[in-house]
Specification:
Layout: H1 2-15, E1 25-26, E2 42-43, H2 45-55, E3 73-76, E4 79-82, E5 84-85, E6 99-100, E7 108-120, E8 130-151, E9 154-177, E10 180-205, E11 212-233, E12 236-260, E13 263-269, E14 272-283, E15 286-298, E16 305-312
Antiparallel strand pairs: 1-2, 3-4, 5-6, 7-8, 7-16, 8-9, 9-10, 10-11, 11-12, 12-13, 12-14, 13-16, 14-15
Length: 313
């Protein structure tokens, strides 16, 4: 690899018209590797340090990962453990990436994650098509979690969740033309959900300092909730209530950073999941029916961005 870099840089200097000078430095090691002689090349003083750093793998452009000892050990709570976690290469090629020790085996993690999203009619602009539009809503979620690291960078845990969503439409008028227009008002929606989940997260340390890392979390959750939908119908209020049971499997990648020695901050994004749902409905207290639904989604949901603080013991 070093000989190849030396040849490429030699050609670059030759093409750019670089010439030797009395003030230049001859980098002899750059063209002799493993006992194989090569062509000597003169490098100006201004480029000598950068040229040598490239050959030694210290450059920001070229990283020589052969200088990293995959058997290096670190001491964690009196135990000697590998700094680099070995992983099976599932592809045809070795990408040369390393999973540094981020959170060691045997740690407990106590975390609290919360998310909040709010929207209103002031954030929407639909020109003259939409008039007399009064709409507001919010979604709130709080999730306490306890996890245990069964392996280095791998944890399993239990999470509880409470979610509340509320929306209100005071009035809305649509005016397409003189003979095509309508108006609705006094519509409300409220949903509350409680759930418990089993989680498993795998972390990847990005550096030797165990400060920055990324993770992917898998969550199997069982939820119970109820919702209420109110609207006027023929001049009379109509209320539809729904109760449901739901099971879902979701995948959430994220980023984690230690802001203190035992305190971390993380951000996760729900992007993929499956669900099974059984729902029963009543209208003004009278049974309406029930239905079973299932599905999958793969999308970025702005209301499923979670910010959390974790304490590691």
């Amino acid at each position: 690899m070093k000989k190849l870099i030396a040849i490429i840089l030699s050609l670059m200097f030759a093409a750019s018209g670089a010439v030797a000078s009395a003030s230049g430095e001859m980098v002899q090691d750059s063209v002799v590797a493993d006992g194989v002689p090569g062509r000597l090349m003169w490098v100006p003083d201004s480029l000598a340090d950068g040229f040598r750093s490239v050959l030694e793998g210290r450059s920001k452009i070229v990283r020589d990962y052969s200088l990293i000892d995959p058997k290096e050990k670190v001491v964690v709570k009196g135990d000697t453990v590998p700094l680099i976690i070995r992983q099976r290469n599932l592809g045809r090629f070795d990408r040369g990436l390393f999973n540094f020790l981020f959170i060691p085996k045997g740690q407990w993690l106590f975390a609290l994650t919360a998310s909040y999203g709010e929207f209103s009619s002031e954030d929407l602009k639909v020109f003259d098509l939409l008039s007399d539009f009064d709409f507001s809503g919010h979604v709130f979620s709080i999730k306490p979690t306890i996890s245990y690291f069964v392996r280095n960078n791998v944890s399993v845990g239990l999470r509880l969740n409470y979610t509340k969503a509320k929306a209100s439409l005071g009035s809305m008028s649509l005016d397409f033309s003189d003979d095509m227009s309508f108006a609705i008002s006094d519509i409300g929606y409220l949903n509350e959900e409680y759930s418990a989940a089993i989680t498993s997260a795998q972390y990847i340390g990005l550096a030797r300092g165990s400060r920055f890392g990324i993770f992917n979390e898998v969550e199997l959750a069982f939820a119970s909730g109820n919702s209420e939908f109110r609207r006027p119908y023929n001049g009379e209020p109509k209320e539809t209530n729904s109760t449901y049971m739901q099971a879902r499997l979701s995948f959430s990648p994220g980023v984690c950073v230690f802001i203190m020695k035992n305190v971390s901050f993380n951000v996760s994004f729900g992007v993929f999941g499956f669900y099974l749902r059984n729902e029963k409905q009543t209208v003004n207290g009278e049974p309406l029916g029930n239905r079973f639904t299932s599905g999958a989604n793969f999308k970025f949901n702005i209301f499923n961005i979670n910010f959390g603080i974790g304490v590691h013991i």
